[in-house]
TrEMBL record:
Database matches in Pfam families: DUF659 (PF04937)
Domain DUF659 positions: 2-150
Name used for this protein in its record: DUF659 domain-containing protein
Signal sequence residues: none
Species the sequence originates in: Lactuca saligna (Willowleaf lettuce)
InterPro entries, per database record: DUF659 (IPR007021), RNaseH-like_sf (IPR012337)
Length: 154
């Protein structure tokens, strides 16, 4: 049974690597977006997943422990700038991050350094922040409390 699992895994790795190589070959035209997704693990470390996206697909690039720089704009800038260098400065046309103040400042620094690059806040994160603010309004807050009571009752 072990030999079968080993063989299947090797075939899947080979297929996945071929797919990744095909997508990477399309990166130069018209360019790619660098996506960052921050999260915390069970040990409360701040981690960032970096993904590269264009119309041909999305590739997971790497995960970084950013616990020491998550609230520091200069360190975030250096981290993002290093990832851009790794991918290729001429290939990255957009960087998408969440909307936290350190990310905003790092995005501004990136755009100052790289004139052809755009920083964009993540739309899902922006919508989440808007919904939280709407939920804080008195009328909506009361409606949410009542809805939760109904949901708990059911």
């Amino acid at each position: 049974m072990y030999e079968l699992r080993n063989w299947i895994l090797q075939e899947e790795v080979k297929t996945t690597n071929a797919t990744v190589d095909e997508i990477k070959a399309t990166w130069k035209t018209p360019g790619v977006s660098l996506l960052s997704d921050g999260w915390s693990d069970m040990r409360n470390r701040s981690l960032i997943n970096f993904l590269v996206n264009n119309q041909h697909g999305t590739i997971f690039l790497k995960k970084v422990d950013a616990s020491d720089c998550i609230k520091n704009a200069q360190k975030l800038f250096e981290l993002l700038d290093g990832v851009i260098e790794e991918i290729g400065e001429d290939v990255v046309i957009q960087v998408v991050t969440d909307n936290a103040s350190a990310y905003k400042a790092a995005g501004t620094l990136l755009m100052e350094k790289r004139k052809s690059l755009y920083w964009t806040p993540c739309a899902a994160h922006c919508i989440d922040l808007m919904l939280e603010k709407i939920g804080d309004l008195t009328q909506q807050k009361n409606a949410l409390i009542k809805a939760k009571k109904v949901s708990n009752f059911i």
